[in-house]
């Protein structure tokens, strides 16, 4: 069994510290991967280990007392954790959004809601719920899917359509039905045990319900309204940027595993093994550089005081396209390595079997779907994107 030194009690203050802790935890996550998958959620002690790495705090800005990792640095941390276990990496990615959401809340409100920077957030952002406008806030009711990490989250954020006196509330931008994101404490949420899936079982992405819960107006947000932050992380699509870290971490783990297995089996001079591994390594390197190259260019523009509109259409489209490509490439790499290893890969103790199922499931997420191609293509052609938020484009809000 891998022995890892206890993580220091002192919270990490730099990207290097958080990354080092994530890398140190990865072997432990690998050993716990089967257990995590069987449980279909992260065990409490694994959640505590993730908190100890600092992953949940890495999106908080320095103004909020956080380490303010760049999006590329955040992606590296998620990549390191997913190298250990995809479900843990996915939950870390989702839970780390807390600090990113803080920029869309009033500063004093965020400080009250998140007295610790190590709280985790979960939830579905699409407006599946119903929020009735009442004095001081909203009454929220609904059922949402894909609540990754909801079994251990501290706050749950959910999208909902607005109603006033039972009637749809139009948006200030002319939309016939406005929507908003609402944050509620986990104690106000009922989790439904629905997460029986092909892969990513350990993410605990269960359905959940909220029934007639009052949500103060100050606990709501939209990505068009930055209220408590500025700079590269205070942008509408910031919560999507580190997602490719999960896919890249799993692909790297699969490549390492297949390479070690080939050497152990004495297949160093086998032509098929050589060409398959090299082909997969080339695809991995290109996909990874696509992600980090797009993030670096975005950060360069935003950190200099520019906006997403200052990116060229190709640079802006590269962000969602590189995400999609990373997910699809990870699935392709794992599939080819699964074929290469042949029958030894089919047994459940094989990590390749788990990675095959994990990458298949994660590619069903919207960021890996053809809707992203249409969105990027429309932006390049001057057309109408189907998912403009993936480009950081929001409609006018009140």
UniProtKB/TrEMBL annotation:
Annotated Acyl-CoA dehydrogenase/oxidase N-terminal domain residues: 27-99
Protein's GO biological process: fatty acid beta-oxidation using acyl-CoA dehydrogenase
Gene3D superfamilies tied to this protein: Acyl-CoA dehydrogenase/oxidase, N-terminal domain, Butyryl-CoA Dehydrogenase, subunit A, domain 2, Butyryl-CoA Dehydrogenase, subunit A, domain 3
GO molecular function list: acyl-CoA dehydrogenase activity; flavin adenine dinucleotide binding
Oxidoreductase is among the record's keywords: yes
A single Gene Ontology CC term: cytoplasm
InterPro entries linked: Acyl-CoA_dehydrogenase, Acyl-CoA_DH_C, Acyl-CoA_Oxase/DH_mid-dom_sf, AcylCo_DH-like_C, AcylCoA_DH/ox_N, AcylCoA_DH/ox_N_sf, AcylCoA_DH/oxidase_NM_dom_sf
Keywords: Oxidoreductase
Provenance organism: Amycolatopsis mongoliensis
All copies of domain Acyl-CoA dehydrogenase C-terminal, residue ranges: 246-369
Similarity comment text for this entry: Belongs to the HpaH/HsaA monooxygenase family.
Record's protein name: Acyl-CoA dehydrogenase
């Amino acid at each position: 069994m891998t022995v890892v030194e206890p993580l220091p009690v002192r919270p990490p203050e730099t990207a290097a510290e958080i990354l080092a802790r994530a890398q140190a935890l990865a072997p432990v996550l690998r050993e716990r991967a089967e257990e995590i998958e069987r449980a279909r959620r992260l065990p409490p002690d694994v959640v505590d280990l993730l908190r100890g790495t600092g992953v949940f705090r890495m999106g908080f800005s320095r103004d909020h007392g956080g380490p303010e990792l760049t999006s590329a640095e955040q992606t590296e941390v998620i990549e390191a954790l997913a190298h250990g276990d995809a479900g843990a990496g996915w939950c870390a990615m989702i839970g780390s959004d807390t600090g990113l959401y803080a920029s869309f809340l009033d500063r004093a409100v965020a400080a009250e809601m998140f007295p610790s920077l190590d709280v985790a957030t979960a939830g579905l952002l699409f407006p599946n719920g119903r929020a009735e406008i009442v004095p001081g806030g909203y009454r929220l009711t609904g059922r949402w899917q894909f609540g990754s990490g909801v079994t251990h989250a501290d706050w749950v954020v959910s999208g909902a359509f607005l109603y006033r006196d039972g009637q749809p509330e139009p948006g200030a931008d002319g939309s016939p039905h406005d929507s908003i994101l609402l944050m509620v404490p986990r104690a106000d949420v009922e989790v439904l045990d629905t997460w029986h899936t092909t892969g990513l079982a350990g993410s605990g992405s269960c359905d959940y319900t909220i029934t007639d819960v009052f949500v103060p107006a100050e606990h709501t947000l939209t990505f068009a309204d930055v209220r408590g932050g500025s700079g590269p992380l205070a942008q509408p699509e910031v919560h999507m940027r580190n997602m490719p870290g999960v896919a890249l971490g799993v692909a790297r783990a699969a490549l390492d595993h297949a390479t070690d297995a080939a050497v152990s089996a004495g297949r160093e001079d086998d032509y098929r093994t050589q060409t398959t591994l090299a082909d997969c390594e080339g695809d991995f390197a290109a996909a990874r550089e696509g992600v980090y190259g797009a993030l670096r260019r975005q950060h360069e523009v935003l950190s200099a005081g520019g906006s997403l509109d200052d990116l060229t259409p190709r640079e802006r489209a590269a962000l969602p396209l590189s995400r999609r490509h990373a997910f699809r490439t990870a699935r392709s790499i794992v599939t080819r390595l699964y074929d290469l290893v042949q029958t030894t890969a089919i047994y459940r103790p094989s990590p390749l079997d788990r990675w095959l199922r994990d990458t298949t499931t994660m590619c069903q997420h919207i960021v890996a779907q053809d809707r992203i191609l249409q969105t990027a293509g429309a932006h390049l052609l001057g057309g109408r994107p189907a998912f403009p938020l993936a480009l950081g484009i929001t409609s006018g809000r009140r």
